[in-house]
Amino acid sequence: MRIRILDKYIFKEVFKTFIFGICAFSAVFIGSGTLFRIAQYITEYGASVTSVIKIFILSLPGVVIWTFPMSMLLASLLTIGRLSGNSEITAMKSCGISFYRIATPAIVLGAFVSVFAVGFNEYVVPWSNEAYSNVLEYEIKGNLSPQSQEHIIIKEIKQGKIEKLVYARQFVAESNTMEGIAMQSFEQGELKHVENAEYAEWKDNMWTMHNGMIYDVADGKSQHTMRFDTQVLPINESPRQIVQSQKKPEEMTMKELSEQIGIMKSQYVNTSKLETELHQRMTIPMASLIFTLVGVPLGMQPNRNSSSMGFVMSIIIIFIYYSLMTMAGAIAQGGMVNPMLAVWLPNIVGLLAGGYLMRRMAK
Fold it and tell me: How far apart are CA 105 and CA 92, in angstroms?
C-alpha cells in the first residue's frame, strides 16, 4: 500500500512539472516564432483578426509536439532533484525501496507521453499543418491561382481500391503544364495499363498528353507497346484543383508519407527528404521516454538539489540532442547515410546514455 501511495506521489509531482514545462517551452516557441510570423502577416498582407486567431490556434499542435521531450526531461530533473535535495530519496531507500522502483512512475509517464505523442503527431499535427497552410495561402495571402510545384500525385480510388494513379515530376503554373507524366491503371488492385508522356497541357478544360508511350501489362510484364503524339489524360481536375489537393510532407500522415515514398521510388526519384520526415514522426515522440531515462538518474545526483541547476542541465541536454538531430537529419536528406539509421542515431545515443546512467545510479 505504501508503494502504491508513493507511486501516485512521484507520478503526480512529475506530471505537474511536465505540464509546467509544456507551458513554459510553448511560450518560448510561440513568442520567438509564431507571434513574429503573425506580425509579418498583419503588416505585409493585412491579415484579419479572424485569420490571425485561426493561424495562432492551428500552429499550437506543431509547437506542442516539440515540447513533449523537453518537458519530460525538465520534469524528471526538477522533480527527482527536489526529492533528492529534500532527502526524500534517502528516506525511500532507507525503507528498502530500490532506485528502479523509485524511478518507475517517472518512466511510466515518459512511456505514456511517447505513445500519446506518436498518436498526436499522426492524427492532429498533419491536420493542423494542412489547415494552417490553407488559411495562410487562401485567406491571408490570397493565392487563388495555382502555384508551380514538384511531385504531383493524383489518385482515383473506388471502394477502397486504387483504379488510377497519375504522377508528374512537376507542375509549371506559367504554362499550365505537367511534366514527366506517368499514369498507371489498375484492375482489382493489379497493374494493367501504363501511359508515360513527356508533358501534359491544360487546354479546353482537359489535359492532353504529348509525346508518350502506352504499355499493356500482364503478369507484371509489358505485353504491348505503342507510341503516341497526343493522348487525352483521363482526369477531370483543373490545375487549381490538382495543386490544392497536394500535401506538403508535414501535412501527411505516416501512411500517406509511406505511399508517397513508394510512388516516387517507382519513378526513380530521390526520397531521402520524405524518408527523413517519416522516421522523425517516431523519433521525436520517443525522445520523451529517452529523456526520462536520462533525467531521472541525473536528478538523483547530490549536486542536483537546485532547481536552477536542473533547468540549466535540461537546456544543455536539449541543446546537445537537438543539435545531433539536426545534423542527423541533414545527413539523411543528403543521402550520405541511410535515412532510418541517421534519424534514429540521436535516440540510440540517448538510450545508451540513459541506460548507463540508470545502471550506474542503481549500484
Answer: 14
Contact of 171 with 146, CB cutoff 8 Å:
yes
Beta bridge partners of 193: 185, 216
83-105 burial code (b ≥16 CB/10 A, e <16): bbbeebbeebeeeeeebeebbbb
Cell 509525346 -> residue: 211
Please report, for the chain, how many H helices and E strands are present, in that order.
11, 6
User: For 159-194, what is each residue's pLDDT tens digit?
Assistant: 777 888 899 999 998 888 999 999 988 887 788 888
Q: How far apart (Å, rounded) are the C-alpha atoms in residues 318 and 312?
A: 10
Mean pLDDT of 260-281: 88
Q: Which of these, 105, 85, 84, lies nearest to 93 by C-alpha position? A: 84
Average pLDDT over residues 103-126: 93
Who contacts 274 (Cβ-Cβ below 8 Å, separation ≥6)? 249, 257, 260, 261, 264
- 66-96 tens-digit pLDDT: 999 999 999 998 888 888 777 777 788 888 8
Q: Which long-range contacts (CB under 8 A, 24 or more apart) does 338-344 make?
A: 339/272, 339/275, 339/276, 339/278, 339/279, 340/275, 340/279, 342/276, 343/276, 343/279, 343/280, 343/283, 344/279, 344/283
246 forms beta bridges with none
